[in-house]
Every structure is written in structure tokens, then in C-alpha cells.
Amino acid sequence: MIYELSKKAENEVRKICDEYEIYISEEKSIELDSRKDELSFAKENIEKGIGIRVIKDNKIGFAFTTNMEKIADTAMQALENTKLNQDDESYEFSSISKVPTIKKTYDKQIKDLSLEEYSEFLKDIINKSIESGCEVTGAGFSAEEMKSLIINSNGVSIENEGTGYGVGLSVTIQKDGKIATAYNSESSRFFDIDGEKLANEVCNLSKNSLNTKSIETDNYSVVLDYYAATGLLQTFMSAFDGENVIRQRSILQNKIGEEIVNPSLSIIDNPLLEKGMNTCKCDGEGTPSQKTKLVKDGILNSFIYDIYTANKANTKSTSNGYRNYLTTPKISLSNLCLEFKEMTDISEIDNGVLTTSVLGAHTANPISGDFSVEASNAFKIKNGELIEPINKAMISGNIFELMKTCEGLKSKIKQYGPYILPKLLVHNLKVVGQ
What we know:
Keywords: Hydrolase, Metalloprotease, Protease
Distance between the termini: 60 Å
Protein name: Metalloprotease PmbA
EC number: 3.4.-.-
Low-confidence stretches: none
Order of helices and strands: HEEEHHEEEHEHHEEEHEEEEEEEEHEEEE
Radius of gyration: 24 Å
Number of strands: 22
Mean pLDDT: 96
Structural class: alpha+beta
Shape: globular
GO molecular function: metallopeptidase activity
Number of helices: 8
Domain Metalloprotease TldD/E central: 110-210
Helix content: 10-25%
Strand content: 35-45%
């Protein structure tokens, strides 16, 4: 069906324009949500759409539709929208090149799994949490099957398909007038998520967060758990965005070849990663996926680009132009791997703090890297041991300075959003007790 639509769209666009790109996607999803410990929402959805871009006289136009009977109108609207844009020779569509092979992105059992089975899976997580003495404040589950096809006037024709599952759990616990909350989530390309383990981890975190103690304001070595790390890394990685570099909004501009992080650390954007949540044959422009070594042994090696920004920078796309049918391509990470040559054990930390997540990471200055955030589910570390939970505390610093000495903590490698990483250990971070 998706190929039939692409041919129909191509025939219509060819009538009015020589340079075109057609992006079609179809998503089938199931979503479940609970209000406290009762399932309150279940939704099965099929969404299909088509986005059309055209180039006319060096001007680009875009339009989209979910009505497959209006493809011709959509193509004409895209052409009309070129009149709203300026002449720019950097607009270009991808060319034919070898398409890579990817592995473990599609779970065949999604065809056989039912809404009832998913509901039982989520109910089991909720019940396990209750058995552990926690009150469930919210839980959710999603399963998605995705297909997309991109074709253009240069002969490109690439299809991507994949599946994805995700579950999130939020709990609270009260004891002796004290209250604590906790949250975590897991995602996978396959329906292999260990729901019982997730429930145990979240409940244990909430229990361990009771009876908080104050902490003395000082500089500490701070362990950033996965959520805390990814929250701050968003600011750091925005400096690798090719558009920010071109617009001189990146502190890393003109630093290619310089050491910017711990020499033990390499950072790779890898859309070819086996079982990666964002693994695909090509990006949203039809540029075949490629691994990009952004940082090698601490040295800045590359930024990330889509076709337009790459042309502006007189370089090549790094296959980081992602989109859906509703949007034009935008520079985004795929599977960002933080790889450390050496990892530090928590036993080596004499005096420190572990924070599970941070609140307010979005307020960090994207250019300077300065941040001030609230630590959540945080614990004091003494002689390599978590000794007590701490009251709410503010943590402040500069992410670009921290990354110069950042270490990987010996821990499981996990993927949260585009980030694939261990827990991180940063030094000399200001922790303000409350």
C-alpha cells in the first residue's frame, strides 16, 4: 500500500515540478495509561500521512496531508509555498548511494500481540508495585509499529520499518509521616522489557528516598544517574548541531581538533546500532545512515548535519536530518553512544552525591553551558557507599567544563531517548544544601 501511494504521489508531483521529495509514513500504535492503580485509558491508533517537498527556482516548498485523496492538491500547495521562501542554492535532495543493512529493529511478534496481553503486562507491573508497599501514581505502556518510505527525483527509494515498546512507572510511598516519590522507564525494539524488575527498582528507589537529611553546601564529586545525565547532556550536545555552529551559537565552533572532553571518552552518533531505538537505513532525507565520530579520545572530530546545513558549511550530511510526514527535516541525534576506555567504581568515591534526576535542565544556557538544577532522589556517598537520602539540593556548574573531566561509572549501559551511556561521574560540582 505504501508503495502504491508513493507512485501515485510521484505521478502527481512530476506534472508540476522536476525536483521533488516524497515522504510517506504509517504508524500503528497502542497506548495504555493508568490513573493510580487502575487502567484508565486504552487507545489503538493508525496514522498515515504524506509530506511533499519541492524545489523550484532554488526555492523550497513543503506541504503535507493525511487525506490520500488530496495528494494532487498537496503537491500543488507545496509548489505554491515555494513563493514564500527566498532563493537559496543550498537546498538539495539526496542522491542514490549504497544503503546499509541494519539489524534487530523489527519485532515480528507485534503482529500477534493483543491489547489484552499488553494490559496484563501493565497490570502486573502495577500489582508488583503495590505488593512492594508502594502506591502507583501513574503507569503507561506503548507499542508501536512504524513504516516509512522516502523517494525523490534523484532516484532515491528507501523504506524503513521498525517496532518500539515503552513503559513508565511513577510511585509514591508514605511512612511515619514521611513521603517519597520515584519514577523510571524502559524502552526496547522488542517486547522483552522486564516489568517486574522495573517495578522493584522504582519502589526501592522511593523507599530509599525516605527520611532525607540535609547536606552541607560544598563542592562534591557527583554521580549523574541516567535521567540526570541525559538532562544535562541535551545542553552539551546542542553545541554539536551544525545549524548552531553555522549561526555561531555553539561554544565548540572553530574547535575541531581540540580536546574538549576527558581523553578517555569518545562520542559516536550511530544510527546503525543493532537494536538501537533510533536505528534506521537512512535519515528523513534519504541520506544513507552512517556512524559519525563526534569525539575521538577526547578530541572534537565532527558536528552533525542535514543536507541543507552541510551545504552551508561546505561539507557532507552526516545523515542526521530526521522528520515525520508533518515536518521538514531537522538536525537530530540518532543513537548517541558515550564510550569510556576506563570506568570508575563507586567504591573510589570518598565524598560525593548521587542524583537520580534533575529538575530544570531545560533552563541551562545553551551557549555558555551554565546550569542550576534541583537534584531529585539524591543520596550522600561516603567511602563508596550510599549512606542516606538528602533533602532537596541545588546543583550548579558548567556542562562544558564538567565534560573535560567526566568519567564513566561502572554500571549497566542503557538507552534513554537518543543517549546510550553508563552513569556519569563529574567532579567539583557545587551542591547547595537546603
